[in-house]
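User: Is it possible to get a 3D structure for a protein together with its bound compound? The compound here is NAP. I've pasted both below.
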Amino acid sequence: MTVATVDHQQLTPELNICRLVNGMWQVSGAHGRINGTAAVQNMFDYYDAGLTTWDLADHYGPAEEFIGEFRRQLQQERGEDALKQLQAFTKWVPRPVKMTKDLVEKNINRSLQRMDVESLDLLQFHWWEYRDRGYLDALQYLADLQKAGKIKHLALTNFDTEHLKIITEAGIKIVSNQVQFSLIDRRPLQNMVQFCQEHDIKLLAYGTLAGGLLSDRYLNQSEPRRRELKTASLGKYKQMVDAWGGWSLFQQLLSVLQQIAEKHQVSIANVAVRYVLEQPAVAGTIVGARLGVSQNIAENLRVFEFELTPEDKDKLESVFAQSRNLYQAIGDCGDEYRR
Ligand SMILES: NC(=O)c1ccc[n+]([C@@H]2O[C@H](COP(=O)([O-])OP(=O)(O)OC[C@H]3O[C@@H](n4cnc5c(N)ncnc54)[C@H](OP(=O)(O)O)[C@@H]3O)[C@@H](O)[C@H]2O)c1
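Assistant: Yes, that's possible. Here is the predicted structure of the complex:
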């Protein structure tokens, strides 16, 4: 594997990221048992494949600590310069309590300490309840911490277009919004993408593989029962598939994906990721990594080896035309967290 196979994008003039981002929700414990030593060791494989951008959160179990430990080992084994290639994007997902300067700073300090960094590359902020406008206070305090050098760039996760607009109009500079975006969940195309393009905000997409459902593994398989879905991720996206159109239509989608994949000599998972990478405003797609348990690095790097043709997209459109409109069924990006 060579580092040259990974596409990069400037998220900001100072921040260059891999367009395939390694997701760390999969180390939280909800996706099977993780061995810390093996997990951190496995992070070297991603690094050596050129996949040097990580997505994590304060509540993904030991994810922030894994970044801290990986940084220490990387520095020790490869020297200080090796750290410059690494980007780690955490999130702050506070409980809906009153936002004070002290509370915000305490939580950011905790991430800094766990990740063993002086400044966070990107802090992605989540908020549970729009009726509580405390999110604007929190973001103002986060902007102060950015000025103080504790955060390099401010970002959001799961914000809808309406509230992204309110935040932008309040003068808070947001770099990216992390949202669900996949062949199943195309809600960002309704409003979010256009707003982001107009305001130079990038999207980081999750759910692109639907936890692994959008892959060869599930082609021609009968509908899995709840207890057969072994990770929290598979459970989450099976519900999306149900809302989108159900298992039979999903099989039709997989079959079309297989035809496209065969033509390009790649996998269904590759086509699923490629589709999202080619959408406007998308800087990168996040693919979950069950560190020390399973690894799909070589296969996933192939997303940079081909492009979808207009005929491929037409074939996909013919399946989309039969699905339910998730924007109407659920709402804008992130609304599933607020029902
Ligand atoms: N902001 C948010 O609210 C939010 C929500 C969810 C996720 N996320 C972020 O997005 C990341 C991804 O999580 P996700 O839930 O969306 O999961 P995902 O990336 O859709 O699925 C991850 C799973 O896909 C499977 N997979 C990977 N490559 C594959 C391939 N080439 N062929 C077949 N299967 C493959 C792996 O299964 P095996 O392990 O079995 O190989 C892996 O565990 C998270 O880690 C997190 O960083 C953010």
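The beta strands are 8-12, 15-18, 20-23, 53-55, 87-92, 122-125, 154-157, 176-180, 202-206, 282-288. The mean pLDDT is 96.
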